[in-house]
């Protein structure tokens, strides 16, 4: 089979980890008789430098003409440290999500057994953790209008806005996902304070009658943040709004032992996007030390999405073999030998060949 894949490497370590994912996909293609045609396009700070726009029309054109999008990372300290910047890399990410109709971000969290002792939590607390976050991606405070600053700059405001349709579509996706897993759905909100959260809770309750086999519970976001640390194995599928999901998934990522292990998929439109949940990590850019596993596991999620389930399983097995064999980057090596980004990618690719 032949697939056209848009490559948006982005900023910081994005190009380095993307190279390893492409390396692995080429090996998958060779082993299973597929052809992956890659088309690169700029996004983020790299696109601002090239044409002044963090998500140019040309990049959007590449995305919508592809079977899937692989995305690396966005962000650059030049913009982080300049509050007055009118154009920012992150604007490109938000516009890309909305332009492609990617209203749900799927972030699975499982623990590799070999890394149980690398988690900051005790082994008995993290063993058996297997949960999925479903984060609404195109609404809420990140997109709400009005927003801005007063003329004298002394007051700033953002609006958190959700419609019933926006909530229904992502909650239904979460219910369906729970039906295919352990049939337990947790809705995270702040319904004791926020009107938008009360809408979320109302919609989920209304839909529950359609999913009577799913155990539905609700949890305030502050309690959810605590429970993720105290008893992460309680959760199966978690659905929540945009900003809460952004924060909670980063918190949960440390359970696995490294932010460099967690992939994600953004879906909802005609073209899905796959990316590691970590940022651009500019301090490591160009040093060949960044962990490429989250990027490679994102490629595995893409293979699943394309219907190549055996191939996706083979990639995950190769990543697991690298971890069990100690072929890991500095974030996971501890007192052991740290391997480079490219060495880890080489090992995973060769494991697929075998």
Description of the structure:
Helix 1 (14-32) crosses helix 11, helix 7 crosses helix 8 (195-208) and helix 12 (309-324) packs across helix 14 (341-353). It is globular, with a radius of gyration of 20 Å. It has 354 residues and is of the alpha/beta class. The two termini are 21 Å apart. Helix 8 (195-208) links the parallel strand 8 (184-189) and strand 9 (215-220). The protein has helices at residues 14-32, 45-51, 57-64, 77-80, 89-99, 123-126, 164-179, 195-208, 221-230, 242-253, 293-305, 309-324, 330-333, 341-353; strands at residues 2-10, 35-40, 68-73, 104-110, 130-136, 148-149, 156-157, 184-189, 215-220, 237-240, 263-267, 273-276.
Keyphrases for this structure?
354 residues, alpha/beta, ten-stranded mixed beta sheet, two-stranded antiparallel ribbon
């Amino acid at each position: 089979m032949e697939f056209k894949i848009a490559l948006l490497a982005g900023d910081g370590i994005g190009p380095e980890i993307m190279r390893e994912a492409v390396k692995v996909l080429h090996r998958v293609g060779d082993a299973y008789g597929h052809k992956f045609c890659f088309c690169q396009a700029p996004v983020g700070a790299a696109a601002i430098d090239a044409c002044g726009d963090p998500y140019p029309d040309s990049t959007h054109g590449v995305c919508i003409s592809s079977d899937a999008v692989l995305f690396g990372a966005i962000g650059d300290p030049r913009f982080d440290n300049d509050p007055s910047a009118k154009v920012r890399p992150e604007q490109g990410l938000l516009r890309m999500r909305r332009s492609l109709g990617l209203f749900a971000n799927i972030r699975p969290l499982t623990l590799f057994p070999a890394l149980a002792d690398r988690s900051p939590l005790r082994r008995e607390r993290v063993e058996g953790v297997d949960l999925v976050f479903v984060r609404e991606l195109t609404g809420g405070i990140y997109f709400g209008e009005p927003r801005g600053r007063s003329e004298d700059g002394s007051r700033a405001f953002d609006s958190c806005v959700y419609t019933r349709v926006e909530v229904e579509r992502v909650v239904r996706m979460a219910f369906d996902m729970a039906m295919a897993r352990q049939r337990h759905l947790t809705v995270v909100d702040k319904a004791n304070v926020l009107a938008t959260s009360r809408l979320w809770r109302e919609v989920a309750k209304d839909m529950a009658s359609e999913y009577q086999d799913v155990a539905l519970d609700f949890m305030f976001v502050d309690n959810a943040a605590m429970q993720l640390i105290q008893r992460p194995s309680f959760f199966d599928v978690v659905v929540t709004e945009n900003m809460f999901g952004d924060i909670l998934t980063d918190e949960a990522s440390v359970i696995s032992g490294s932010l460099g292990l967690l992939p994600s998929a953004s879906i909802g439109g005609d073209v899905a996007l796959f990316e590691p949940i970590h940022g651009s990590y500019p301090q490591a850019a160009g040093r060949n030390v960044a962990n490429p596993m989250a990027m490679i596991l994102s490629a595995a999620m893409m293979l699943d999405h394309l219907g190549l389930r055996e191939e996706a399983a083979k990639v995950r097995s190769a990543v697991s073999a690298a971890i069990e064999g100690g072929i890991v980057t500095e974030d996971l090596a501890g007192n052991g030998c740290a391997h480079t980004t490219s060495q880890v990618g080489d090992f995973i690719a060769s494991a697929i060949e075998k």
